[in-house]
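Morning!

This is the sequence you dropped in the shared folder:
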Amino acid sequence: MFKGITKRWIINTFSVILAIIILLIVCLSITVKSLYYNNIERNLTNCSAEISKVFENYQSDSTTNFLNAATDYAQNFEYKYNMEVQVINASGRIAFTSTGYDMDEEQIVPDFEKALSSDGGFAQWIGKAPSNEKVMAVTQVIKNSEGTALGAVRYVSSLSAANFNIFIITLIAVFVGLIIIFCVALSGNFFIRSIVKPVREMSETSKRIAQGDFNATLDKMYDDEIGDLCDSINDMAHELDASEKLKNDFISRVSHELRTPLTAIKGWAETMQYGVPDRITLEKGMSVIVKESSRLTSMVEELLDFSKLQSGRLTLQMERMDILAEIDEAIYMLKERAISEGKHLLYDEPENMPAVYGDKNRLKQVFINVLDNALKYTVKGGMIGVQVYHDFKEDMIKIIVADNGCGIDPEDLPKVKDKFYKANQKISGSGIGLALANEIIALHKGTLDIESSLEVGTTVTISLPIYKETNLLNSQESNIVEPVIDTEKDSEQNYK
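The structure's back. Tokens below.
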């Protein structure tokens, strides 16, 4: 019944409040008792001081005379209805009492003995009277001029009324405390339920989401942190649903992309296995096998790079490099393809360009990916232009690749750099090339921006910071650009 948040609330909050209320009630009871008892003691002490003045420097040395004078004082005592006045003889026995009741000569007066031994002849006592009633008494010993104790006058006040009043006040305090505890428990129960119920629903919904039910959603009950958490879980479910669909589409596309070259390789291999083709057919078959094998290798390497990127293991071999050399090599690798497809790849190389601090193999991979996409989405007879210049205002190297291809739909444009996303389903591709390229440029402290219009074309702008001495210092402090040997890339370089 009591577990989780409820248990912690009872232990950490309710128990503390309960302890504080109990402590306050105890303190109040002690304080009230002290006030009542002090007031009674003060009244008795004042009367004792009065009797001291009445018998001050008493001259008679006769105990009988003292008892007669003290009895007369007790009979005419002004407050005898509020307290009892007792006259005690020299032997410590009660000789007279203002109540008029018969005296118990065997009654012990403990405060008389204390008063005799005290310097001022005064003593106080709290205890039970012979009637079993709790009383407070003060005794003042009367001495003659020679210092001989003639007897004492004792003032006794019942504590029953005071104790009853203390009990009533304590009872009222306990009642008020119970009301406070009830209110705290009631409000706490309502508050806990307002938290526990949504949390339980969140827990159940999270389990459904974890099991793959991304359509599970939560109703937002409160406009507070709980409501924000509901929104976050709903957004998470929506994003997971979208990611799951993208992942499934990605797996389907990759499976298709892998099947196509494998089918071509298998078909030509079987053709050459079961018959000896002529030279032209053999060369054509071998060309297809080599081309499709390279395509498979590029796809596998792209997937490996993406896996490294997702796990944070993608590292860069940073160095001072000539950016124009890598752009030239990328264009050279795709020049023949552009010619064979009847497309124009235009590039006017600038004469001088500042050096860039980066990983030349990874940057070349980005250039090839961007150029490859431009060729894919440009129809026969179209043009792809490459421009490189130094932006002095931003102190960056700008590489612009523009085509007049089919363009990208405005709805797809913000998502084309997302992983698994593929705007045009008719064109082959895995959908992770631009995401990988964007991350590589980001690791170089640069940007990759895309502008596009349908049936007009697409422009990709890559911005890279120029080489400075601070780049080298920063690289030595960064884990991202720590030089490592990439054995997978050393074996064979293939880029998409």
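Headline: The longest helix spans residues 4-54.

More detail when I'm at my desk.
O.
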